[in-house]
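seq as requested:
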Amino acid sequence: MNTLQDLRYKLQKRVAKLESVGPDGLGNELIRFFDFFDSNPTLRACAASLGAGCPQLENQIDDALKKQQMIEGLTETESAAIGGIVLRRLAVPDNGRFSFTQYVSYTASIAKMLDRFREVFLSPFYEYLDEHIEDRNIVLGELVRFKHLAEWFRSKQLWEKWKSDPKSGERGLALSVYEFLYEQGIEFQIEPASASGEADMVSAQGSNPLVADVKIFDPDSGRGASYIKRGIYQVYHYLQDFHQPIGYLVVFKGTPKQLNLQLSGSSVCEIPSITLGDKTIFVLQVDIYPHEESASKRPVPDRETLSEEEVKFELRSDSSG
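struct tokens:
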């Protein structure tokens, strides 16, 4: 049994427990389920991408609860995203007996309400995971794997690639990202045209293009927090051009200084994200600087901060101007 097949089997077993547990035990079983779920980077990446594609659902669920209405998705993806949000909300200690009943229409039978809850929330979420867990287009998960590979094994090679030609080194680093994703089975074209210029990468996969960009963080060469902020804007505009909900910015850290991203959308995948309107952008940092000392022995580094408020304020200013 390969790794992904094993993961599907383990997921299936835990979902089977959720499908058979009684109303009294649902909350604790959900806690155990998400303890397993969050320990696996593939599942975390799949859920993070799912949620990022439907950023307004949290508010819509809250509105439905206030009106004592059920909320169901209009598409399979939306239904799965709603299911993931509701299930996770209930996976907390001391959540109250039969707390799931607030999400379904009232009937005199708690058992029937639980069946309806599973039908509306658990089944769509599980079916989405089951269908996408072996999908090689879970880009966020592959980018996390690239980060680990680059920092653990290829940092010297990537550092030298950049420093050997600082003017075009950023492009060389971008090609390293694309090469890795291509090796994982993600097909794309590298130089597409868009109304905003040229995104570094847009996949050639049917009607759902993958939009990504690559930047260097190195304040001493003029590529500080403001430069990264412009990279976020670029991805945002590319997403508008290609009518896509999710984009990615890969930031190579070529300096001992820290980039402190204060983004509220840090996900269960541990990659910060920011939502601008109906677009979500994940920002992945990859440290390739040749540190002379281990992390525990390094002095506290200088840092530059990029806050979500700053990004959104300037974007609003640009739009109103």
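The radius of gyration is 22 Å.
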